[in-house]
Amino acid sequence: GFIRPLLHRADVEVIVRSATLAELLAQLEAHTIDVVLSNVAVPRDAAKPLHSRLLAEQPVSLVGRPVKGAPRFRFPEDLRTVPVILPTHQSSVREAFDRVLDEAGITPVVRAEVDDAAMLRLFARESDAVTLVPPVVVQEELREKVLVERCRVPGLGERFYAITPSRRFPKPLLREVLAPYPAPRPPS
After folding, report:
1. Nearest to 170 by CA among 90, 23, 10, 50
2. Radius of gyration of the chain measured on its C-alpha atoms
3. 42-78: per-residue pLDDT in tens?
4. pLDDT tens digits, residue range 126-152?
5. DSSP-derived secondary structure letter, 34
6. I need a surface site. Which of 46, 108, 132, 176 has the fewest CB within 10 A?
């Protein structure tokens, strides 16, 4: 949704790069890219004046291939025996998910840990395990019933941010694209 308005403009060239957050932030600071899209906010720091603007917050679910006659998924109890594919420990969602399971005294059967949303999507489609993922990542598979939402994880969500450098005169196009997303308010 953030990029969509740019894709219909003849006066804009969109280049999308994937890399670690550290690599992308270094490119942002070097002014070789204009914005970083991330699921992690960066702290404000005088040495690195960057701003994180919240674009969206998505619920997180356990999804899997449909199983005919499968009983209703009981979260978190069923994770004692149902294998699960998880994002890696670098994910904020994973940290929160692990905390929920720790508090419930459950050690999950982890089939795989994946650090990329596209790979999580692939694993979800190809595995008999359930996968922890925001439904937006697998929306096509859910719509086509290749995957089903087994359980929306209560109280768990993933946030998506646009990270920009602090500029006295922000780029007009970037200001235009960010306009629908309210800027964070400074603490009182």
Report:
1. 50
2. 19
3. 887 767 788 899 998 999 999 999 989 889 999 999 9
4. 999 999 999 989 999 999 999 999 999
5. S
6. 46
Which of 156, 159, 158 shows the shortest CA–CA distance to 181?
Answer: 159
Query: Cα dist. 21→18, 67, 102, 122, 186 in Å?
Result: 9, 37, 28, 22, 24
Strands (E) in 26-170, as ranges, are 36-38, 50-64, 83-87, 109-114, 130-133, 148-165
For residue 111, the one-letter residue type is R
User: How far is it, in rounded angstroms, from Cα 125 to Cα 93?
Assistant: 20
Nearest Cα to 176, choosing from 185, 164, 158?
Answer: 164
Count CB-CB contacts under 10 A for residue 6: 14
Cα–Cα dist 92/16, whole Å: 23
Residues 188, 186: Cα–Cα separation, whole Å: 6
Cα distance between residue 14 and residue 12, in whole Å = 6
